[in-house]
């Protein structure tokens, strides 16, 4: 897998530092609020696991799964709800945990979904933000790292289900996916 990586963008230490910084800020901001922390599957599992260990609060945890890439390197523009959350969000403070915000479509879809269900507040924490990829207005409240408009994998991010288990974030060599 490492041979398929053009360059490393963020090391394990960079990611650990980002998790600690974000966890401290969320702990401060959510004192006494008992948020529901919702991880967006599958990409956010590594980040969410590390992040919540750095948050010193009572919280509920749930997961939601949506798909827009459908195995490719670009968002299809069509969002499909694959797995819904189990917790009622009405009147609750929600913190979405995302691996990356790229086009913004998934985030907008999720925010609208939970707003319609009566969430008290909705904030977003993302490990990585790719502002150059936006096609709709979307903004995270907590951003760990900014990434360039390149195809990145590792630490939860994948290409056709592969590379999620890399302990760092790297740019995938174009030849790996360009003929697909």
Strand content: 25-35%
Fraction of residues in helix = 10-25%
State mean pLDDT (0 to 100 scale). 93
Cα gyration radius (Å): 16 Å
What's the CATH class label?
Alpha Beta
The SS-based structural class is alpha/beta
Distance between the termini: 17 Å
Strand order of the largest sheet: 4-3-2-5-6-7
- Number of helical segments with 4 or more residues: 4
- The oligomeric status of these chains comes to single chain
Shape summary: globular
Poorly predicted tracts of residues:
none
CATH architecture: 3-Layer(aba) Sandwich
Q: Number of domains in the coordinates?
A: 1
Describe the structure.
The protein is of the alpha/beta class and 180 residues long. The protein has a single domain, classed as Rossmann fold, CATH 3.40.50.2020. Helix content is 24%, strand content 29%. It is built from four helices and nine strands. The protein has helices at 12-29, 45-53, 105-116, 174-177; strands at 5-10, 36-41, 60-67, 80-83, 93-101, 121-129, 142-146, 152-153, 169-172. The strands form two sheets. A six-stranded mixed beta sheet has the order 4-3-2-5-6-7. A three-stranded antiparallel beta sheet has the order 1-9-8. Strand 2, helix 2 (45-53) and strand 3 (60-67) form a beta-alpha-beta unit. Its cofactor is Mg(2+). Its main location: cytoplasm.
């Amino acid at each position: 897998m490492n041979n398929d990586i053009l360059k490393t963008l963020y090391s394990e230490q960079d990611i650990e530092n980002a998790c600690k910084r974000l966890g401290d800020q969320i702990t401060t901001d959510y004192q006494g609020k008992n948020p529901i922390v919702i991880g967006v599957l599958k990409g956010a599992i590594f980040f969410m696991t590390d992040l919540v260990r750095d948050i010193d609060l009572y919280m509920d945890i749930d997961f939601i799964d949506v798909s827009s890439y459908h195995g490719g390197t670009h968002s299809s523009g069509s969002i499909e709800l694959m797995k819904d959350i189990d917790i009622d969000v009405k009147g609750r403070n929600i913190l979405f945990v995302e691996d990356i915000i790229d086009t913004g479509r998934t985030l907008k879809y999720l925010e609208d979904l939970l707003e319609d269900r009566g969430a008290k507040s909705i904030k977003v924490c993302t490990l990585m933000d790719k502002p150059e990829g936006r096609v709709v207005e979307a903004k995270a409240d907590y951003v760990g790292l900014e990434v360039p408009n390149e195809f990145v994998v590792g630490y939860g991010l994948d290409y056709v289900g592969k590379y999620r288990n890399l302990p760092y974030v790297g740019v995938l060599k174009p030849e790996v996916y360009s003929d697909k």
